[in-house]
């Protein structure tokens, strides 16, 4: 079985980071820890820690990215939930063995050099699920 440690973050697709911050930061009162460009995924991400997890506001920087296509099709909203695991390879093997459809059969490199992989929403009741393995300290 996959050993999930905690929810690492919930990602929300937005049309505009500053506009989204009027709610998430100014009205709701969350703090922005940092804003990072993720060139691999053609996006800019604002990180807002909440307890031991984060809300991530994701904005596409190109018309062609997965995030841009998502926004066009479904509008802004929750994009994915990310679970932190100890061993991402073992988790992917275990999910494959359970017949789960994966988007990434092997880990890819996400924000801050973390190893990540996505599970297809078809296998997760319509939710895009991301797995995260934190880099060794
Ligand atoms: Zn994520």
Structure explained in plain terms:
The chain is of the alpha+beta class and 137 residues long. It has a single domain (4-133), classed as 2,3-Dihydroxybiphenyl 1,2-Dioxygenase, domain 1, CATH 3.10.180. The protein is 22% helix and 38% strand. It has helices spanning 17-27, 66-74, 88-97, and strands at residues 4-13, 34-38, 43-50, 53-60, 77-85, 108-109, 115-119, 129-133. It has an 8-stranded mixed sheet with strand order 2-3-4-1-5-8-7-6. Strand 2 (34-38) and strand 3 form a beta hairpin. It is globular and about 45 Å long. Bound molecules: zinc ion. Zinc ion binds at residues 9, 11, 56, 80, 82, 130.
Attribute tags:
alpha+beta; 137 residues; 8 strands; globular
Question: What topology does this entry show?
Answer:
Layout: E1 4-13, H1 17-27, E2 34-38, E3 43-50, E4 53-60, H2 66-74, E5 77-85, H3 88-97, E6 108-109, E7 115-119, E8 129-133
Parallel strand pairs: 1-4, 5-8
Antiparallel strand pairs: 1-5, 2-3, 3-4, 6-7, 7-8
The structure holds zinc ion.
The site of zinc ion has 6 residues, from strand 1 and strand 5.
């Amino acid at each position: 079985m996959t050993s999930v440690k905690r929810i690492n973050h919930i990602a929300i697709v937005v049309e505009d980071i500053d506009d989204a911050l009027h709610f998430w930061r100014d009205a709701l009162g969350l703090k922005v820890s940092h804003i990072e460009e993720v060139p691999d995924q053609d996006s800019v991400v604002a990180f807002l820690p909440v307890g031991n997890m984060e809300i991530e506001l994701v904005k596409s920087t190109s018309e062609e990215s997965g995030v841009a296509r998502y926004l066009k099709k479904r509008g802004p909203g929750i994009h994915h939930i990310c679970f932190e695991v100890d061993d991402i390879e073992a988790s992917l093997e275990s999910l494959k063995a359970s017949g789960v459809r994966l988007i990434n059969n092997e880990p890819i490199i996400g924000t801050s050099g973390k190893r990540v992989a996505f599970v297809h929403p078809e296998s997760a009741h319509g939710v895009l699920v991301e797995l995260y393995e934190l880099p060794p300290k």
